[in-house]
Amino acid sequence: MTSALGIDTTKQDAYNRGEDQGVADALAGRPSTSPPRDGRSGEQDYYADGYDFGYQQGLKMRRPGEGNGGQPVVDPMQPMGQTTPPVGQTTTTGVDAQLRVDQAVTPSIDLDDPKPAGLAVLITSGGVPVRPGRVELRIAAPTGMVFDDYMTPSYLYSPTPVSEAERPTHRLEEGGRVMVITGDFHVRTNEADQHGWLISASVRHMNGAKPGKNKDGLVTMNGVTKCALGGNLF
């Protein structure tokens, strides 16, 4: 299938359909049914790649603590009822070491039809109330990718938006290879932040980027490594 611009969209459509199905299966608690690949880099292979990627993202979208055995799940955009921090636990200032950072969205860019792709990280605390004060979160993009000058913070599973007073600030360094975000990423201190923060950004391919699955991106908080980041160029 060819678009009006002469671009073959078959593989991208297949990838998107696979990704949607993978996310749906994971959120529903169904086991992965990743289809076999025929090795021809055609529609079937792209569907399988999209499914695998979508399934992993769906698992990350599940509520913390839920397994993969068909337990109920909640749409991340669905408003939640009121919750309270665990009894007997207190909030302590300057405890950024208790915060955990994980990749929530892995970017995939088709070099034949390159478009910006989402990259997101999730900040949680393992169920412990934490108010670290202002910390510096440095996110280095995977090889072949650079950040757009755009960042959106939100509270995971909460309809409450981040207020302007609490909105983290950001800047780009190293020609866009690194995004530096500064803010107070408090977790489990009020109704809105019970499940942590989702930091969403956008990346694009660098000129001369080559296909590959790169896992050399990096997230640090106040100089301490928190997690590696992956990205796909195909």
Describe the protein.
The protein is of the alpha+beta class and about 230 residues long. The protein has two domains: about 10-60, no CATH class; about 95-234, Sandwich (Immunoglobulin-like). Helix content is about 15%, strand content about 30%. The strands form two sheets. It has a six-stranded mixed sheet with strand order 2-10-9-4-7-6, with no helix packed on it. A four-stranded antiparallel sheet has the order 1-3-8-5. Helix 1 (about 10-25) runs parallel beside helix 2 (about 45-60). The longest helix has 19 residues, at about 45-60. Residues about 1-10 and about 65-95 have low confidence and may be disordered.
* Overall CATH architecture of the largest domain: Sandwich
Briefly note the CATH topology name of the largest domain: Immunoglobulin-like
Oligomer: single chain
H/I helix tally: 2
Number of strands: 10
Structural class determined from secondary elements: alpha+beta
Low-confidence stretches: 1-8, 63-93
Q: Percent range for helical residues?
A: 10-25%
Mean pLDDT: 80
Largest sheet: 6 strands, mixed
User: In angstroms, what is the radius of gyration?
Assistant: 19 Å
Question: How do the helices and strands line up, and which of them pair or pack?
Answer:
Layout: H1 10-27, H2 43-61, E1 100-105, E2 108-109, E3 117-124, E4 135-140, E5 145-155, E6 169-173, E7 178-183, E8 197-205, E9 212-221, E10 224-233
In short:
The chain is α+β, with helices and mostly antiparallel strands. The protein is built from two helices and ten strands. The strands form two sheets. It has a six-stranded mixed sheet, with no helix packed on it. A four-stranded antiparallel sheet has the order 1-3-8-5.
